[in-house]
Specification:
- It is a single chain.
- The protein is α/β, with parallel strands linked by helices.
- Helix content is 39%, strand content 22%.
- It has a seven-stranded mixed beta sheet with strand order 3-2-1-4-5-6-7, with helices on both faces.
- Helix 1 runs parallel beside helix 2 and helix 1 crosses helix 6.
- It starts with a strand and ends with a helix.
- Bound molecules: glycinamide ribonucleotide (GAR).
- Glycinamide ribonucleotide binds next to helix 1, strand 5 and helix 6.
- It holds the Pfam family Formyl_trans_N.
- It catalyses: N(1)-(5-phospho-beta-D-ribosyl)glycinamide + (6R)-10-formyltetrahydrofolate = N(2)-formyl-N(1)-(5-phospho-beta-D-ribosyl)glycinamide + (6S)-5,6,7,8-tetrahydrofolate + H(+).
Length: 193
């Protein structure tokens, strides 16, 4: 199986959905977390998945902590990276190393509402629908090539909480499915060297 790392910063419900999906064609060999208090760490520990947890405040620069992180990714022989609620922009270094092998899931129909608080942004904009996007990660903020999108209707009485629940239900189904599609497609062309 293809060895992958999942990156998350908080609750980790998307990480959990990947763990729980029995059809996943990859093996999660590392959880990367930039928030030592995050619930997602507990989820990894319960599942016996190794973790790489760091506190960015303890480093002088992004380059410094990413060099350490890179070492952990290389040691774990990680081939693909899946961002799932990782609330930090990757440096050009990691994007370059990951070279079209990094996906992210975002709770809006990109290019609408990039960055933080996408659900709140959609509610405040008064639009009738929003959704979920899975895309490749490049050096911009949620600007990489889109792989899949699914719409979620915004209902008149929606609050951030209710809309988030419906969006996440879609995310938990869509992300494992798209990851599988991308990896299966990729494996057709990756004959090694
Ligand atoms: C997810 O809804 C994900 O789409 C979003 O954070 C949430 C994390 O939830 N990501 C972003 O907003 C990225 N800009 P989780 O920790 O329960 O998976």
């Amino acid at each position: 199986k293809i060895r992958v790392a999942v990156f998350a910063s908080g609750d980790g419900s998307n990480f959990q959905a990947l763990l729980d999906n029995e059809d996943l064609v990859c093996e999660i060999v590392l959880l990367v977390c930039d928030n030592p208090g995050a619930k997602v760490i507990e989820r990894a520990e319960n599942a016996g998945i190794p973790t790489y947890v760091f506190d960015p405040n303890e480093y002088k620069s992004k380059l410094e902590y990413e060099l350490h992180l890179l070492k952990a990714l290389v040691n774990a022989e990680v081939r693909w990276m899946f961002l799932a609620g990782y609330m930090r922009i990757l440096s050009p270094l990691l994007v370059e190393v990951g070279e079209d092998r990094i996906l992210n899931i975002h709770p809006s129909l990109l290019p609408a509402f990039p960055g933080k608080d996408a659900i709140k942004q959609a509610l405040e904009a008064g639009v009738e629908k929003t959704g979920v996007t899975v895309h490749y990660v490049d050096e911009g903020i949620d600007t990489g090539r889109i792989v899949a999108q699914e719409e979620v209707e915004i209902l008149p009485n929606d609050t951030e909480k209710t809309l988030k629940e419906r969006i996440q239900r879609v995310e938990h189904r869509l992300y494992p499915q798209v990851i599988n599609d991308v990896l299966i497609e990729f494996s057709k062309y990756d004959k090694g060297i």
